[in-house]
Amino acid sequence: MKTRPCRRNSGQVLIIAALVVTLLLLSTALYVSEVEKNATVYEQRVNPDFSEYKLGVTHTVISALANVSNGGSAGVLATNLDQFKAVVEANSFNAMVEMDCTPFNAAPYQDGFWISWGTNGRGISSAYVNLVLNSSGTSASYYSEYTVNVTSEIEVAGYYTVLTGKLKQVNLTCNVLNEGNSALAQNFTVYYEQDGSLSPEEWVQVTSPSITDYGNGTYTMSFTAETTNPEDQMLVSVHSSDLRYILTQANVTCTQV
Amino acid sequence: MRLLEDKKGQIRIIEAFFAAVLLLSSLTLIPMVQERSGDSTGNLSSTAHNILMSLDSDGQLAGLIDNESWINLKSCVQSSLSPMLWFNLTVFDETRTPINDVPITSGSAVNDRMVAVDYVCASTSGDYTVYIVRLQLAEVD
Fold it and tell me: Which of A157, A150, A217, A220 minimizes the C-alpha distance to A182?
């Protein structure tokens, strides 16, 4: 008779016990999710903002290279990088961001630039910057090192046939490359040396050369040139601006066919 | 009486069944709690960030700002977003002065819960400029 009420309540005790276990499980899950939110991240992940800053530095380098290749001063790179760094550091509210941009200064680069407009048919305009990003926030700290290299390149080869006397039909093939990959050009300007000699330099601009764009970074150009003497060699200079307005020049001596 | 006592046994089974259901339902609630901790504002932030990054990847964002092509900029953002998202974009210069004289928005705000992402954007042109682009996003209820 005494055990009867106890047996009658055993189902209710079971439900209460289940409720307690449920509450424990839920509170543990909540606690774990809250702790995960506040934990400082020390794993080697990249701050998502870093890709934004790297892209900004790349654009800054492109701008400086476009400026310098078109006759600007080399100091523009450091000035522009300082300007970008100041804006980033002043507008990082979630974390303390430190940005260190160093123009590469080892051969063949000087003050971050390498301009090589050769006579072998290859012209290079390049800029190289080392970038270090450090971000310290309340929830995570990140550190990353990058290199930013912007290179525009052209490769020119050509041949000519003698038409009559001093008149020559010149055909050129030009490949445009950005960072080693095929790229499109904005425009071309073509010159030839009037007497085939660089002393003195007497470049004649070709008016309206016939240019064929193959859409894959390869261009062919043809024009008629008139040199001082029929036996003068055909020295050609191609100036190319890519879609980023970076100027690259290359000189080539065409072979007679 | 015998019948009643038989029913008591069934009630015990039903009680145990309810207890088991309660426990199992708590287990199904745990993933929901964890999902809620990575809430929708985080998704909106990354959406805003990704849109600005993709527009800026080839220098298009700074180019549109350089040319003050606000209508084209609005079209670009609008085409990158779901129609269920409201947006407002403001372009600032380095001194935090707004420079877009035309509102770049999909209408008036429809939700109090919105996120704002600030993006630093550098132009690729020879005339170098740095802009701060603020994109605000909210879900349409």
Answer: A217
| Cβ-defined contact of A93 to B118 (cutoff 8 Å) | yes
Chain A residues with beta carbon closer than 8 angstroms to that of B119: 52
On the question of pLDDT at A4 being above 60, the answer is: no
Q: How far apart are CA B20 and CA B24, in angstroms?
A: 6
Sequence ranges of the domains in chain A: 1-39, 48-150, 154-256
Q: What are the chain B neighbours of A48 within 8 Å (beta carbons)?
A: 46, 49
Q: Tell whether the model's pLDDT for residue A227 goes beyond 50.
A: yes
pLDDT by 10s per residue, chain B, length 141: 555 555 667 777 788 888 888 878 877 776 665 555 445 666 888 889 889 999 998 889 999 999 999 999 999 999 988 888 899 999 999 999 999 988 999 887 777 788 899 999 999 887 899 999 999 998 876
Of A29, A33, A63, Cβ closest to residue B123: A63
State the amino acid at position A193 in one-letter form.
Answer: E
Q: Give DSSP secondary structure letters for A74-108.
A: TTHHHHHHHHHHHHHHHT--SEEEEEEEEE--STT
Q: Which residues of B touch A133 (CB under 8 A)?
A: none
Contact B59 A59 (CB under 8 A): yes
Q: B16 and A14: CB-CB below 8 Å?
A: yes
Interface of B with A in 27-86 (CB under 8 A): 27, 29-30, 33-34, 37, 46, 49, 52-53, 56-57, 59, 62
| A154-256 under CATH 2.60.40.10, yes or no | yes
| ipTM of the complex as predicted | 0.72
Residues A80, B128 contacting (CB under 8 angstroms): yes
pTM of the model as a whole: 0.77
Q: Are B138 and B85 in contact (CB under 8 A)?
A: yes
Structure tokens at A123: 């012209």
Per-residue pLDDT, A24: 86
Among A18, A60, A66, select the one facing B23 at the smallest CB separation. Answer: A18
Which residue in chain A has the smallest CA separation from B133? Answer: A91
Q: What confidence score (pLDDT) does residue A46 get?
A: 56
